[in-house]
Amino acid sequence: MLSQLKQLSDVADGRYATDDELKFMDHYARSFYLRVQTYQRLQVAEAMIVQQVLSRVKKLDPASFQQEHIEAKWKRDTIRVLRYSAIALLLDDPNTLRERLLYWFRTVMKAFGTQKNCAITYQVMQEVVQQFLTPNQASLFCPILELNRQILGDV
Hints:
This protein is mostly helical. It has helices at residues 2-11, 23-60, 70-91, 94-112, 115-129, 135-152. The radius of gyration is 17 Å and the shape is globular. The protein starts with a helix and ends with a helix.
């Protein structure tokens, strides 16, 4: 939403926006309450989501957590990305998430060679969040998690 508003401001500089240029605002207004409800549900369920994802990822890729400090770092990083993803959902702005966090974070993950773990983490998270969200909420949020998987997993 924020990046779309900035783009609209740049494109419509000195004139009124066209109906086509304003369509994204109508879409956002129609989905606003669902976005707020989804954001709030993610906030409440965050710890349970992260714990379930961790348990499943450990079963799928136990080698990723062999070093002692890795699990705590994984949790911090996963919570950070989950929270930024929730904001992207709320604001309907995956572009800002991609440009301000994911591209930078991908560089860090590549440096540590954790792309496989990231791919598994965000694939599993898409499955886990569906236990906590309604189908409509999941349909808004899972594409953001898929974006995370693609960029951080370097798929």
